[in-house]
Known about the structure:
Layout: H1 2-23, H2 34-51, H3 56-78, H4 83-112, H5 122-148, H6 153-165, H7 169-183, H8 187-200, H9 207-219, H10 224-236, H11 240-251, H12 259-272, H13 285-303, H14 308-320, H15 324-337, H16 342-355
Amino acid sequence: MVFWLLVASFTGFTIFGLLWPLSRVLRHTPDIDDRDFYALQIANIDQDLTRGLIAPDAAEQARREAARRLLASQSEQKIAPSDFSNEKRRRIVAVLLILGVPLGAYSLYTYTGSPGLPDQPLSARLEGFTRDADLSTLITQVEARLETHPEDGMGWATIAPVYVSTGRYSEAITAYTKAIGLLGESAELRSGLGEARMAAADGIVTADALKDIEKALAIDPKNQRAQYYQAVAAEQDGDKPRALSLYQALATHIPPDSEPGQLIARRIEALTGKAQTALPDETTDQGAMIRSMVQRLDEKLTKDGTDLDGWLRLMRAYQVLGDGDKAKAARERAKNAFTTDQAALAKIEAAARDLGLK
Length: 358
């Protein structure tokens, strides 16, 4: 309600500011009527002639000049614009402003705004504002330093991935390029530059991005980011056997319950049509360690269920371990922990769909 009162107030002030000049009637009213002035001048000439103060020829010449000016002033008054016509135009413009400004503003807001968007809780708005403000402040501080110290290679390397995460891809490419020029070649910087080029191309591995990825692998063949994007490039080129081989080779070095491990598993599933359930061997130290980590996470969430990311990790871990029933139970426990948080429930359901728990 307050919002619409403010809108109405601003609209009223705007219309008033536009109509105020139109309400002022501009009139030209001379201090002395020109006809009276010249008639008085002719009478004075006659008096001077009677008194002998002016010669007859000079008096006649003065009368003619005064008469000429009198006729000229009368002609100017006849061709003066009509006040009625000006007033009519002002009224038309005023009506158009009174009706056009509110209707135009409402139409523009309806087209470009979101009148049906529900209110967002103040706490959520303040939280998002604080988080964005903090990140924006940090970026501004780093940019200010780089402006005065453009030779700071670590500064460019630090801000480049931040640019990628905030969608400023062209600036990320520039930052990575400057970091490489100042710090020298490295697999991390080269793979980051390739990632930035891909992001700028809407996820397409362009020729330039592929060159950066290949340079990163030449420096460090085990660079996982470069390995992943190399597989993505093969998949986009239609070379599915090579892409599958690259994904499978990378999967052997990444924990299956991690985010990258799950991402790779989904790519392999998409290429093979088979769900990937790379179960760890419990007889090995690695398998026992993974089971122990999952158990500790479960116990932690049982005591304190406010960690949404923890619940999502637990669901994925049980699914990867082949414990589908425990994964479904974890989903229900997570939903019970966030019964009034619609955003958290949406994330839980989205994770359940990705894991095939429904």
